[in-house]
Amino acid sequence: MISVSDARSALLQLTQQMEVEHVPLAQAAGRVLAQEVSARRDQPPFSASAMDGYAVNAAEVELHAMFQVIGEAAAGHLFVGKLQAGPAVRSFTGAPVPQGADFVVIQEDVGRKKDLITILNQPGTSTKIRPLGGDFRQGQALTAPRVLRPADVALLASMNIPEVPVRRRPVVALISTGDELVMPGDTPGPDQIIASNTFGLKAMLDESGADTRILPIAKDKISSLRMAFSLATTADLVVTIGGASVGDHDLVAQVAADLGMERSFYKVAMRPGKPLMAGRMDGIPMVGLPGNPVSAMVCGHIFLLPMIRNMLGLGIAPKQIATAHLTHALAANGPREHYMRAEVIEDEISVFYNQDSSLLTVLSSANALLVRPPNDPARQAGEPLGYLPI
Ligand code: AMP
Ligand code: MG
Q: How far, in Å, CA of 227 to CA of 10, rounded?
């Protein structure tokens, strides 16, 4: 049995970074920017009026000053010509500031009679002009790697980048194993349950940037498992669920070995999730998760998400451990690292009474996994302990 951190290191060693692909900007949100990209132009590309008003020469701006309006500049319609001393140009937000002007008197500060305006309010010192390149200059970079947020997509658009270099999303093949499993919506027999882990894991992995495919459920039969593996040969990561312990019907390890899996490890000193196996099959990393729903999901958080991050070039930093104060006492932990389903409210954490690894209602109510290191001593109410937000 190896430790959680050794298991994680071994799993990361199995993964490699995905290649770069280019996607249209409209599909770039949530993807991982793979290479630094540079602005193709200045923004704004001209000094621009920030308000509706009148563009004038700053030196002439004072209370009661009068100007003749000799033209108009609107967004998308520049004023052709150069402003000499004396006149003003009607100017709207987003319009290029006419040559020769360096101040916009906002329309609220002005009285107008025909083509004559008079400054009626103290115009202040702000020029109401957005300077050329005030947002970014041509060549300015958006650095990589980063997960592209909506604001990044807007920035890339503004930089005139229509296609974005991103890491290909790793394809994960998920194989549920068990004669007792049917798909949601199917009619289960009297001895059957609905496959749930596959759907929870797909949601988790896709949210982190993977492209997860749910394969047909494999029966607890060698031929069925072989068939399932044969459907997964184009994946970047194969994940099996269930059938990984030592029962008579737990055939994943045997079939994987028959198919040439080079085993990296089997069994991790953790709760839940001890019967975890990993290795490489035909060059593809393979992870065998335990079948209990909570075990599978916890192992997804602790092991699969760092693998996906690594494949996306995001580095291996696991989710930050946060700290909260226990609301109650806890007994000493045993020799395995324990990820206890818990609820954090503000800076207090309460562990759910029932930690059975089959209870999805408890996991669904939890927003944290309290991390208990091996042999962690008994803890008192009020002690600060580390947890993983989930
Ligand atoms: P196993 O690891 O195959 O012994 O499965 C352990 C427990 O998890 C059993 O009660 C299985 O019925 C259950 N189980 C296995 N796979 C799944 C799945 N995909 N969805 C829900 N429960 C599962
Ligand atoms: Mg099973």
A: 27
